[in-house]
Structures are given as structure tokens and as C-alpha cells.
Amino acid sequence: MDLAVALERIKQAILKREVIVIVGLCEVFYEGRASSILGPGERIAIIKSDYSVLIHRPSGYEPSNWQPPDSKIDLKIKDNTLVLEARRVNPSEILTVIFHEVYQILSWKLLDEADFSMYATEEDMKKAILFNPSIIEEGFQPFEQERKLKPSGFVDILGVDSSGRLTVVEIKRRKATVEDINQLVQYANSVEREFGVRPRAIIVAPGVQRSAVRAMHINSIEFRCLTPKKSAEILRKKAGLDRYAGLE
Amino acid sequence: MDLAVALERIKQAILKREVIVIVGLCEVFYEGRASSILGPGERIAIIKSDYSVLIHRPSGYEPSNWQPPDSKIDLKIKDNTLVLEARRVNPSEILTVIFHEVYQILSWKLLDEADFSMYATEEDMKKAILFNPSIIEEGFQPFEQERKLKPSGFVDILGVDSSGRLTVVEIKRRKATVEDINQLVQYANSVEREFGVRPRAIIVAPGVQRSAVRAMHINSIEFRCLTPKKSAEILRKKAGLDRYAGLE
DNA sequence: CCGTAAATTTCGCCA
DNA sequence: TGGCGAAGTTTACGG
């Protein structure tokens, strides 16, 4: 495909706020927070309506190179190549794609206003515990969420157990790591400094990594098993009850 | 575009190990480690040669949904829609894309064997320090890298200073956070338990977040400023010297 | 704009 | 295969 024609085609599509797919033989250079060089190869470049740029190789989930939304896009012909530059400031970064050949250019005005809903997140686990605190243990009463701690950090849930003892709850949607345990210990320390009493500290997660079990026991951290999926089920049941209540 | 034709076109392209781009109006469902629902909208689906699948909305750097390489891809016509399923085991996950309309299907056999080279990584920072330890301080002598610690974690560089004192070095390519400081404190504790002496602990990074400065001073962590870019320059100079030595 | 933490994080290394 | 940590992580949510 003639590069001058390609350039004009891309410029028009950008003006029309279309999503553009460019297929061709290119080299890619990136300079910014890091630097990278990718030698010649056949790839797909995507310029989205929000001026984000993606370079995808024929394999792999991740783009080899990219520029996030609102990058400044420049196009030019140089030395019989089509040069695509996408710049960003703060951090100052530049992505340069040099097309030696362009096989095809496609563009579409795409309309996509749909909501994206995600379930079984850590947030859902927290909601499930707040809806049914006995997941932690019988008599547990949450009284605060996302409490900011003195030096830094946030407690997921702060509450009291059936005997009135202050309890710190940390939630993870994946197996708890030694880092997670250390973090919870820090949080418990902060809470102790602030409240003047040593709180119970409970990690809620689908499991605990083997290497974290030691740290858990040493620091008297307790564990409750809860998966994101189970939490989502609890919330679905709650939603059903709410709807039923609404129909009465 | 006729959906039966679209289906046949995609199947053929998969057999030929081509990279496929499908543009159309679709809904997307994901069920696995989490769940998500994305209502109808116009998007680009990409099936790569390695059987990874990406769903890209008209904006944003990240795909709204995806399946990593080696997913099992199934296609069928159902209720006047084209259904694309990409399954994965371990973790068990399924991505379902329901196309109500397919505007265009494109596919190419792409050849891309080029090496991807990244510079100014944390690894480069470590190499720069090992090449020129005076970056840490005059007389610093590294004697081990990536030393495994007892409960968990790795020390980037272990060495001795000019007075022979054991020194732990942690490297970060970005401003050090309070989490990074805590991690280094844990590492220093581990090293102290193992060697029986309290080591110096130095964080090497382009800077320290304001909130982390307190934690740094409290824990007697020292700071040396080094950027990934500066490290890459040092390594380039070294490469130049090596080449020069080779020519002599 | 900084700080903090989640993410279907992915990816690569190494035991 | 699982653990471990980096990443140009990105993104979202506060203050």
C-alpha cells in the first residue's frame, strides 16, 4: 500500500475520531520512563478514539508497546517509511513506530456506551462480610470501613468481637502472601498506637501461601477462609431478598 | 455481514494460524477468577496466533476482557448471533463474546521474530551498581546478589562498606514508597537474624515519596539517588569500554 | 497532583 | 508446577 495514501487515510480517520487498525511491517522505539527497541516485524497497530496507541505482536496478551489515552499523535513520511509518533508529557514519553510497509488500514466509528460490571472483587468480599459479619465469627460487629491509619494505609474493616475486643480485618481476593501478613501486622500496630489496646488481627482470603503461615502464627494473625465467588453468591442472595422485600 | 459466513471465515483463519480482527456489535461475559458483564456495544475482538483473545472497546489502554495465550476457542451460531467462547483451565475461566452483528473480519499471517530489548529496568540499575559500586559510596563492595532470605524475599545486593560493615541494598526504579521501606526493614531484620549483626540498609531509587521519608528516618534507612536512565548510560559507557578493549 | 491499594493484574525466573 | 517479585505496570479513588 502506498505510504502517502496510508498517511492521508489515517489522518482522516483520526479527524473523524475513528478507531484505526494498521497492519504492516514496522520497527518500534520507546523512550521515556524506560527505553525499548523492537526490530522489524509484522504487527498490528491500533489508534483508538481517545488517542491511545497499542502495538500488538502476533502473540501475547500484552501490547509490546503502547501509549495511554490523550497522547499527541503525529504522522509523517520519512525515508520511504511511514512514521507514527505518539507523545506524552508527565511523564515525558515518546513512542515511535516506523512502518516500512503498510499492508492494510481499517477504521470504524464505534459506539460503545455500555456499562462494564465486575463481580467477585475484593470490594464484594467486604460487602459480603458487612452484610453477614458472622463470616468472620459469631458476634462480630463491624463499625468502620477503610479507616485511615496514622503513618499510612487503610484498614479494610474495623470492628469488635463478641467479647467487645477491637478487631482489625484485612481482605485479600487471592491467597495471602507474607507481604499481606506484614502489612496487617503494621496495621494492627497502628491501631494499637491509636486506640491504646492490642487488637485482634484477622486476614480473610481464599487461602494463605505456605511461606506466609509462619509469619501469620508468629504475629498471632488469625485466618478466615472466604473466596470472591462465595462472596458474590452471598450478595446475589441479598439482592434477591431485597427485591422480595420491595415486592411485598 | 452474514454470521454463518463470518463463522466460517474465522474458523479458516484460526486453522491457518492467522491473527484475526473482528469488528462488530457484541456483548461480553466473563466467568472465572471473577465475573464480569459488558452490555451491547461496538468493539474490536482480536484472536492472536497463540490463541490469546482480546476485546477492545473504542477507548482505553486495557482490553475490557481477554483470555491469555493457549485458550481453547469455540465458535458457533446460536439464536441468530455468533458466539465466541475462549476457555482456559487452571484457573478455570471462560470468556464469552456474543456478536449480534459482525461488520468486518480481517486476518493476516504475520511474521514477527524480532527481539524486544528493554533498557533502564531495575535489572539495569543493579548492573550499574555492580559495575561501579561507588554509586553506593566509596569503598562499597558487593559480594552477593539476589540472596534468598529466611522467611521470604530477596536482597538485591548484599555487600560491605569501606569499614567492613554488612550492607543491604534495595533497588527501586521509581520513587520509593512506604511499602518499599517496610520491605527493606524486613530484609534488614532477616539479614540481622542470619548474620548476627545489624546491617546498614540503603534504598537506591530516583527518589523517596514524601510519606516514606518518615519511615525511612525512623528505621535508619539510608537513601542513594539513582535513576534508571542514569544506570542505562553507565552501562552504555561500559559496553563502549568493553568494545574498545576487544579491539586492542 | 500525590498517595494508596486493587487487578481476571501479566510475565519471567527459578526451585 | 508453584512461589516470588518486577512492571514504561494501569486504573480507580481519595484528599
Describe this structure in words.
- The structure is a homodimer of 248-residue chains.
- With 248 residues, chain A is α+β, with helices and mostly antiparallel strands.
- Chain A has 2 domains: 3-108, Protein Yojf, Chain: A; 122-241, 3-Layer(aba) Sandwich (Trna Endonuclease, Chain: A, domain 1), CATH 3.40.1350.10.
- Helix content of chain A is 28%, strand content 40%.
- Chain A is built from 5 helices and 13 strands.
- In chain A, the strands form 2 sheets. In chain A, strands 4-3-2-1-7-6-5 form a 7-stranded antiparallel β-sheet, with helices on one face. Chain A has a 5-stranded mixed β-sheet with strand order 9-10-11-12-13, with helices on both faces.
- In chain A, helix 2 crosses helix 5 (228-247) and helix 3 (178-195) runs parallel beside helix 4.
- The longest helix of chain A is centred in the C-terminal third of the chain and has 20 residues, at 228-247.
- The model of chain A has no long low-confidence stretch (mean pLDDT 95).
- The interface between A and B is large, with 63 and 63 residues.
- Strand 2 (35-47) of chain A pairs antiparallel with strand 8 (116-119) of chain B.
- Chain A binds a DNA duplex (15 and 15 nucleotides) through loops.
Oligomer: homodimer
Query: Which range does the strand content of chain A fall in?
Result: 35-45%
- The secondary-structure class of chain A comes to alpha+beta
| Counted beta strands of chain A | 13
Largest sheet of chain A: 7 strands, antiparallel
CATH class of the largest domain in chain A: Alpha Beta
**Beginning-to-end CA distance, first to last residue of chain A:** 67 Å
In the CATH hierarchy, the third-tier topology of the largest domain in chain A is known as: Trna Endonuclease, Chain: A, domain 1
Major interchain interface with per-chain residue totals: A-B, 63 and 63 residues
Order of strands across the main sheet of chain A: 4-3-2-1-7-6-5
CATH architecture of the largest domain in chain A: 3-Layer(aba) Sandwich
Shape of chain A: elongated
Average of per-residue pLDDT values of chain A: 95
Low-confidence blocks of residues of chain A:
none
H/E element sequence of chain A: HEEEEEEEEHEEEHEHEH
> How helical, in percent, are the residues of chain A?
25-40%
Number of helices of chain A: 5
Radius of gyration of chain A: 26 Å
